[in-house]
Every structure is written in C-alpha cells, then in structure tokens.
Amino acid sequence: MKQSMTLIPTLREVPADADVKSHQQLLRAGFIRQNASGIYSFLPLGRKVLQKVEEIIREEMVNAGGAELLMPALQQAELWQESGRWNTYGPELMRLEDRHNRNFALGATHEEVITSLVRDEIKSYKKLPLTLFQIQTKFRDEKRPRFGLLRGREFIMKDAYSFHSSYESLDETYEKIFQAYQNVFRRCGLNFRAVIADSGAMGGKDTHEFMVLSDIGEDTIAYSDTSQYAANIEMAPVVTKYKESTEAKKDLEKVETPGKKTIEEVSSHLQTGKDKCIKSLLFKADEEFVLVIVRGDHEVNDIKVKNLLDASVVELATAEETKEILDAPFGSIGPVNSKAGVKIIADEAIKYLINAVCGANQEGLHYTNVNIERDFKVDQFADLRFIQEGDPSPDGEGTIQFAKGIEVGHVFKLGTRYSDAMGAQYLDENGRAQSMIMGCYGIGVSRTLAAVAEQYSDESGLQWPASLTPFDLHIIPVNIKNDEQRELADQLYKELKDQRFDVLLDDRQERPGVKFTDSDLIGLPFRVTVGKKASEGIVEVKVRKTGDVIEVHKDELAARLQELFRNQ
C-alpha cells in the first residue's frame, strides 16, 4: 500500500481527553477517531489490526469445534422478556421503539437470540453438542465511557454459545474453548492471566475471565505469590484462620461520638483499632433489606452477598431507605437493638470480636464493649468480605498479592439458565424433553486491540507484534524527488510484495523528520530507509522494538527480513 493512497492522519500532540497510553497512541498514529463519547471509527490501519485479531479468533474457535454465524444487532424485546432480563439487565441496555411502537434492544449480548434460534431448529440429542459463534458490533449505554476502546458504548465482540445434553459435554467444550482463548491471547502477544470470576448479569456458574495485566486495568486480580492461583478480587474466597481472643467481656456502654460517622473517625475518636469496630451496611437484595456486618478494617463484598442470598440484584440502600428501615442515619447504624424483622448476616471475622464498637442506631452515638450473642444475634455467618493483600491464598499455597487487569475475555457455564426460561428443549434417547445445557464465551475484539496497544508502545509510538502488525514493514525514501532513491524504493516495494511481505511505502512529499516520526508512531516491526547509499544498492533496516539499525544490500534484503521476522 502506498501511503499517499490511504488515510493515516497522524497527530503531533497528545489529545487532551486521552488519558491512557493506548488511547493516546491509537489516536496519534491515525488508527482510530472518536465520533462521539464511547463511539469510534476504525481507520484503515486500525481496521487491518482488527481483522488480524478476528482471524486469530476465527482459527482458534474453528479448531475448538465452533461454527460461525451472524445474528441481528436489533433484538425483539419479547426475547429479553422471556429470559427475564428486560427489567433486570439495567440502563446499559439500549432500548428503542420502531414506528409501530414495538420495543427492541440494540444487542448488548446475544443469549436470548441464540437460545431462540437453537430452540426452533434443534429438537434431538443427536444434534448436540453444538457450538456457534459470531464476531459483531455490540451496544451498551455506558454511564461513563472512558479509556478509549477499553470502555465504549459501541464495540466489536466475539461471542460464542454451546449447547449440550450433559454437563460432561459442557465441561469438555468449556475446556476446549478455555484453551482456545489462551491460544488467542498468546498469539496476540499479551501478558495475561486466566482468573476465577463472577458471572454477573449473565447468570450461570463456573466462570473465568482473561485479564491482561496493566496498571490502568479497572479490575483487581488477587493472585498467589507462589502458585498459579488467580481470581477476580470479587470472587477470591477468604480462608484466614482468625484467633480466639482471651480478653474478658466488659459491660455494654453507649458513648457519644458527635459528627463521627466513618470507621476511621470513630476509631480515632474512641482510640481503638479499626479491627475492633463493626462496620454495618444496609443492602437491598431484590426486594428484601438485609443488614450486613463486617470488621471495621474489612470491606463488604457485594458479590458474595448477592451469591449468598441467591439474589438477582444487590444494591446498597440509600440514605432515605436506611433511615426508613432502621430509623437511623448512615454512620450510626449497628446490629445492637436493630429494628425487628431485618435479617442480619455477618462475615466470619465477626465471630471473633470481643468488646467491639458499633453504631447505636442513634445519630452521634455508638456502643462500646459489644459482644455477639449477649448483645445481638446473627442470622447467618459467611465469607462476606473482600480478600486483602497478605491473606493466605485460597489454594493453600503462598499469600495473596494484587495486580490490575483489563478484561479481554470471559467464559461461562450457563447451565439451563436461559433454556429453562425460554423453553429450549431437546428429546433425549428415551424421547423425553430435556432443557439444553449451555455455555457462553466472549472476547472483546476491539478491547483486545487496545490492550495490545497498552502493552506494546513507548514514548515514540506503537510497537506492534508481528502477529497483529497492520503492515510487515515500512519503506521510506528519504527524498522522494531523488530519482535513485525513488526508483530503488519502488523496486523494493514490488519485490518484497512478491515475496509475500505486506508493505507500506511512504511516497509522500514530506520532510524526512515527518516521515520518521510518523513511522515510529505507526509502529511497524521494521523500517527500511532508502537514503544516500541508494546508488550503491544499500539501505538501512531499523528494528522498531530494539531501535537497532543495520545496513543491508538490496539483494540480501528479503532474506534478512525473513530472518528478522523469525527471531521476533
């Protein structure tokens, strides 16, 4: 491709609204342009990288037994109502009406569509298992689009769905696609971890996320410092063994704590440790209000609360709801003399507190010397807190450390969550109707591109790995008006294309500095500079990754480039 015949609008300055490296570099190098908040156009270079990511995904999915199809982005509301998600998915689902006042959604995901499709077409166990996948644009009305392609309102995704007549079959496919995902992200050159995850609004059990390690990641990974254990912090169980206290129990006392509402303020005012305080939070689980208590130095994990209560939605109660239900304001609620009828669930660490501090359910007052059983009852104990750095690893090996990660893939064992709700059944060997067992597997294609850009860039621009580079190499004649340089550049362009290299030729009438700066921004693996030694048939080859520069005769260039590519 000649550079004068394509669109690569590079920028000299970092855009003011681009606050992460991948967003900055993709904009500066002319790979993407923003149309609206969270909505981007992929320019020719960006589209080429997307296509390479897509082809890697296609190859691995087909190898894992998947068949590609394409489903509509415009989805009938009735399908979402069948699954029960029309009202529970949340405001991220983009809803609209057509001219006949029929409700539709722009596809945020495709469980409903694929389940209805397979329900209507597959009737016998003989047609199972079946794995179908697509690569398509998705739409989610993100409240706060940010980080360029990493969190947008329109994005490209690969989603796959598998259908089975047994859980053993689901397990087999899950493992195949789990391995396929590992292959995909390795081939993309990413530093990633597969971590235990929560299924969220998708439903189902046994899920893993694929996290690209990055300081700007929005997810926290809890991992063992000595083993392969890794989990999203939301899902990491706490296995800490708490010590029994030998402290003598004291009499309950109510004390004044004027204006003190947070654990930090109360513990400082009363000159006691945060680990001696009880943190009380009122949650609304579906339609039930529940008081959740944890130790003051711990944080409530709402995902664990949701899973314990088997609730669809768990939200922190508002100040108004808290006042209405408990007759007390934020910062003053507690389990002692709590309003009757409100269930109390507690983290395991609460069992071991002696002479603790908690809110007195009156503004500006707290109890000291609070002791469980004597002063309040707990309806249920469970692991309800977030794991912390330094806690024992759940697999029994090492201690927990934290890292940030960008989620690029997610695999779920859905079970019969959607097939039960939508009547997707097959006839088994005995002619009995059974619900299909499902799996679901997603990769953020455009997000993967951004994650690669995040890991493969420096202060000068991008550094594409060979598997994803939009072109293999960049030929730059220093002076396009010089006949020898121009003719040698054209000759090499043709010869290297014949050798099956994908070549970008900078044939623009620009200053050398502009060309070299743009080349570094674009980040192709190799740059071939045709300069003053063109008359001798000698060119310079620069390796983008290392900055190394070598002189090569034109007759040896193809062989030398092939060797360099092999060593990438």
TrEMBL record:
<keyword id="KW-0648">Protein biosynthesis</keyword>
<dbReference type="GO" id="GO:0140096">
    <property type="term" value="F:catalytic activity, acting on a protein"/>
</dbReference>
<dbReference type="GO" id="GO:0004827">
    <property type="term" value="F:proline-tRNA ligase activity"/>
</dbReference>
<dbReference type="InterPro" id="IPR002316">
    <property type="entry name" value="Pro-tRNA-ligase_IIa"/>
</dbReference>
<dbReference type="InterPro" id="IPR036621">
    <property type="entry name" value="Anticodon-bd_dom_sf"/>
</dbReference>
<dbReference type="GO" id="GO:0005829">
    <property type="term" value="C:cytosol"/>
</dbReference>
<dbReference type="InterPro" id="IPR045864">
    <property type="entry name" value="aa-tRNA-synth_II/BPL/LPL"/>
</dbReference>
<keyword id="KW-0963">Cytoplasm</keyword>
<keyword id="KW-0030">Aminoacyl-tRNA synthetase</keyword>
<dbReference type="InterPro" id="IPR004500">
    <property type="entry name" value="Pro-tRNA-synth_IIa_bac-type"/>
</dbReference>
<comment type="subunit">
    <text>Homodimer.</text>
</comment>
<dbReference type="InterPro" id="IPR002314">
    <property type="entry name" value="aa-tRNA-synt_IIb"/>
</dbReference>
<dbReference type="Pfam" id="PF00587">
    <property type="entry name" value="tRNA-synt_2b"/>
</dbReference>
<keyword id="KW-0067">ATP-binding</keyword>
<dbReference type="InterPro" id="IPR006195">
    <property type="entry name" value="aa-tRNA-synth_II"/>
</dbReference>
<protein>
    <recommendedName>
        <fullName>Proline--tRNA ligase</fullName>
        <ecNumber>6.1.1.15</ecNumber>
    </recommendedName>
</protein>
<dbReference type="InterPro" id="IPR036754">
    <property type="entry name" value="YbaK/aa-tRNA-synt-asso_dom_sf"/>
</dbReference>
<dbReference type="GO" id="GO:0006433">
    <property type="term" value="P:prolyl-tRNA aminoacylation"/>
</dbReference>
<keyword id="KW-0547">Nucleotide-binding</keyword>
<dbReference type="GO" id="GO:0002161">
    <property type="term" value="F:aminoacyl-tRNA deacylase activity"/>
</dbReference>
<dbReference type="GO" id="GO:0016740">
    <property type="term" value="F:transferase activity"/>
</dbReference>
<dbReference type="InterPro" id="IPR050062">
    <property type="entry name" value="Pro-tRNA_synthetase"/>
</dbReference>
<dbReference type="InterPro" id="IPR033730">
    <property type="entry name" value="ProRS_core_prok"/>
</dbReference>
<dbReference type="InterPro" id="IPR044140">
    <property type="entry name" value="ProRS_anticodon_short"/>
</dbReference>
<dbReference type="InterPro" id="IPR023717">
    <property type="entry name" value="Pro-tRNA-Synthase_IIa_type1"/>
</dbReference>
<keyword id="KW-0436">Ligase</keyword>
<dbReference type="InterPro" id="IPR004154">
    <property type="entry name" value="Anticodon-bd"/>
</dbReference>
<dbReference type="Pfam" id="PF04073">
    <property type="entry name" value="tRNA_edit"/>
</dbReference>
<dbReference type="Pfam" id="PF03129">
    <property type="entry name" value="HGTP_anticodon"/>
</dbReference>
<comment type="function">
    <text>Catalyzes the attachment of proline to tRNA(Pro) in a two-step reaction: proline is first activated by ATP to form Pro-AMP and then transferred to the acceptor end of tRNA(Pro). As ProRS can inadvertently accommodate and process non-cognate amino acids such as alanine and cysteine, to avoid such errors it has two additional distinct editing activities against alanine. One activity is designated as 'pretransfer' editing and involves the tRNA(Pro)-independent hydrolysis of activated Ala-AMP.</text>
</comment>
<dbReference type="InterPro" id="IPR007214">
    <property type="entry name" value="YbaK/aa-tRNA-synth-assoc-dom"/>
</dbReference>
<feature type="domain" description="Aminoacyl-transfer RNA synthetases class-II family profile">
    <location>
        <begin position="38"/>
        <end position="465"/>
    </location>
</feature>
<dbReference type="GO" id="GO:0005524">
    <property type="term" value="F:ATP binding"/>
</dbReference>
<comment type="similarity">
    <text>Belongs to the class-II aminoacyl-tRNA synthetase family. ProS type 1 subfamily.</text>
</comment>
